[in-house]
Amino acid sequence: MKTTILLSLMFAGVAFAGFEKWTNKDGKTADLELVKVVEKDGEKAGEFKMRNGKTVTLKVSELSEEAGEKIEAWEAPAAEVEGKESVFDKVLDGNLVKLDGKSLKKFEMTERPKKYYVFYYTASWCGPCQQFTPSLVEFYNEHKTDNFELVLITSDQDEDAMEQYAAEKKMPWPQLKFKDAPKFKKEFDHGVTGIPSVIVCDLEGKNLGNMRDLAALEKFVK
Predict the structure, then answer these.
(1) Closest by Cα among 154, 144, 39, 155 to 97
(2) pLDDT, tens digit, 9 for 90 and up, residues 66-112
(3) CATH code for the domain of 44
(4) Element (H, E) at 187
(5) C-alpha to C-alpha distance for 37 and 75, rounded to whole angstroms
């Protein structure tokens, strides 16, 4: 009863500038600020800030279909990334995925590498890449430090192939989203003429060379 009264009061109120309009299942609207999405009684719910500063939690089932879809699709703002900035941040931030089980899921980098980015240009259809990748996976797992981060830049033809390749090889590193790979290649011309290529760059973007020789790569990432 208390929840019903609260919902009625909220969604019968006056709209306030700066708050997004939300509609409940009865068609009443109120301007609320969505703070975060949580689980309540086994379903997703939005935790909202009201104009008076108080908060209220509304389940998807208490909202209109459109509002419920917004809750389902909501993503938390990216956390602030610590560490020295690089020329690659504007392309990488918010556009990375990483293997989680057998699927590529959104990945937020919480700390930037101290010295280098290593960009792995590869694709599932590339025979030499298939042979080389297991060695690079082993290298990464053994030598990963906060001095560097490896980011895969795909040349696959679709997202499914990119994901299957990552799962088959148990890739431990982040990857640039499929849709953003062409933009990255256009903005940062690393002189890649064939794959696999392992390009080491400093944070200012200087290309330090193609390090397919993992012994040579090790000297950079220690």
Answers:
(1) 154
(2) 999 988 887 766 555 667 899 999 999 999 999 999 999 999 988 89
(3) 2.30.30
(4) helix 181-187
(5) 8
